[in-house]
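Priority: low. Protein: MAPEG family protein. Input follows.
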Amino acid sequence: MRTTATPPRRTATLRPTPERQPATATHRTVQRGVLRGMGIGMAMTLLLLVLMIALAPRALLPLIGPTASLVAALHWALLPLLCLAAVIGVMARHRFLHAEDIDGSGLAGSGLTGAGMAGSRGMTGGSWTVRNYQAILQNTLEQVVLAIPTYLIWAVTLPREWQAALPAAAMLFVVGRVLFWRGYSGGAPSRALGFALTFYPTLVLAVVATVAALVGLR
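Result:
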């Protein structure tokens, strides 16, 4: 009787789950720098917003009525939009002036350049400078998308006496973007304060507006 050999059964091998690497001294130093910058940014945000709401300077208050508050919010929303436009403009200027970046990262690895031929341009992801600009642009776009709807919700949700917080938040946005830009190449601790001054004012306004909507404050 002819017998056939049974192939050996394969046993599944379990790959060890990679363990989380412990934080090194350098990592902890970076974390402390980030926490310090974020903490300072939060303190500055709360201080200025509370001060504006408490003092309610007449020059920063809109005219009476929800429509006037909404129009004022749209005016202040121009500041974040101008920050976004500034980043786009600076990056466009850099691309125009530098051959290695002029074709854009979308052509990276395609072998195509503006002349329609294979060449050294368009074969990489761009220079170190343009990659930094792209990261700053992406972060700024995210912040603008979050900030402008929050400004509009604040304008129609909160009382007129609280509307002075909007100009403060918009001006902190500009200061934060400048600090974020200047500190970006220095690493996370250098840009933490700029990020915080951009993000925390919007976050505080969003949280307060949500609470106000729930309790019916108007």
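The chain has one domain: 32-215. The two ends are 93 Å apart (CA to CA).
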